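Problem 3 from the worked examples.
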Amino acid sequence: MVLDAAVTRNAHPARAARLAAFSRVFTTDIDEAADSIGRIFCPHALDSLQRSWPDFHALHNCAAFDGFSVNYVSYGGSVSIDPGCLDRFFLLQVPLHGGARINTGGRTVEVSAGRSASLLSPTMPTKMVWQDDCAKLILLVERRLVEERAAALAGKSGAVVEFDPQVDLNTPFGLAIRSQIEYLVDLAEHRGPGQQLSPLMAATLRDSVIGLLLTGQRHTLTDTIDRSLARLGPLPSVLRKARDYLEAHATEPLDLDRLARAAGIGIRSLQLGFQKHFGMSISDALLDIRLTHLNARLLRAVPGERVIDMAFDLGFTHPSRMASFYRARYGESPSDTLRRSR
């Protein structure tokens, strides 16, 4: 819904919306807001609380990256939001104005600008009340990516990750994660909607965010990860070199001899190192990198580009196997992703 200039001015008194060039929803109709924002996040019930109807508006700006997004969301007046279980993603919500009361996982969390934020887990039922023209920066991270990293760090697959929902923004972690979100927002605004991040840069930023969440905020696998990291110690430089080499040569056939020479370690030690520190084989690590690159290419494809051509460019030699791996990771076929990007 397009709003006139007067409505736009009144919607955000004395403050500017972030990510303005990435506008996805701007409406004063509550049903349209629930439907449109629900398609970006997840279906949810949305109601304007008593005496807030004249002030209601909904604004959602969203800059999407590979596996995560940064968002600016605001509601005029006070609203109740009931998404139930988020299911597919984690949400870190940092208030910039106003406050909110969140009921999740049997806890009630009060958040306010400059003091506290909330971190919602996909398996925990959630209800929220956003109060006093609340506006938030929101970081969305895909559940699969968080749980895969947690499993690799903990050495334990299949475990559900549920975070403590209360984030104190004045602790070292709170200051760091807010700085990270603001950096991502600044980066998106500087580059604009037309400039995509390189797959390597997007993966680096995503891994940094996920690592910070898993090591900075308490969750159900915190103790297991702490014990695992204490046993492993810091990531050896040879493995860092090997991972960087795979990223730089992802389109080439895997050559273990060259990889081992680049890392400065024997092949067998390199294989054991990948299993121990990354929780996967070298070939699986390369597959993961290629799938990440393919997803990024599909999301920024121009008319006329074909899945098969992109796949061959990235080193895939068996299209049907590639499609199976892609569907297992992203929940849809490469062709579906390509259609959504147009």
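Problem 4, a separate protein:
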Amino acid sequence: MAKNPGTVLPSQETPVGQTVLWAAGICLALTLAGTVMPKWLTFLITMAAANGLVSLGIVVLMRGGVVPFGQGMVFAVGGYAAALLFNKLGITDALLLTLCGGVAAALVAAPFAPLLSRYRGIFFAMLTLALSMVTYGLLMKLEVLGGSDGFNLGRPTLLGQKLPDEQVGYIMYVLTLVVSTVMALLARIYFDSTRGLITVAAKENELRVEYLGGSVHQAMAINFILAAFCGGLGGALAVMALGHIEPNFSFWTTSGEFVFVAILGGWQSVIALFLASTVLEVVRSFSSAYFPNTWQMALGIFLLIVIRFLPRGIGSLWVKGGTR
């Protein structure tokens, strides 16, 4: 396949080893900074990182030219899976619950992947939104899952150790940072892989990819399952941080916030995605505190400003070449 002269492949930009060192350094710096942060700030970053994982899944799909408006479904499935395993089966380890949340979301999404891989544009967006709203309706009606009120879960353990009262928030903060860092690295490696580059090529010309022997439908189906896994991880981490799960995890406005973050960060940079998620949490927190009746409008204005001056997202500030 001929390369666009203006294209910069990710593998040509930063070696994997250097990327790992940068990621580990940032994770370590944030971990150390968390020891002196106020609790409200560590909680805010914890939620931003957990939500950023869901938006990371959206970016996986955006690189192929589709935008899902139903990531709330996998976010809710991951959260409910973790909460049910905690309350019903007595599984309390935070790492295991996080992994189970991701696997549960991937398993729920897998049967729909072959169908959705055939759709593009508004059809893909609306089908994923429909799945999310069907999930929301089921969660609202099923009393065994707490109905409209949801239910609580207790304090998780970590590697068999009970978390102390004064450190539980910080430990969940560190755990979420570590999981997010690992997933960000894996996503970067996947984006630079052959299948990841096929996804980008399919966005430009699906027919040419098929002629060269690549399967666009297979690539999109795999991307959908990977996106679900990321969303499930984020849902499990968010539920453990909040200590409560409810059907609104799957509501369309929740899915819209994840898309908001993906657009704000752009699809060129993984770091920009988590930065955008943090920006959203900060803007939402302060807007709801000082403008309780108009904070949604403040978010909308903020997004319009970003689209006007940074149409490719925050990541375009440091990613060369604009598009890949």
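Solution to problem 4. The first helix runs from residue 16 to 34. The radius of gyration is 19 Å.
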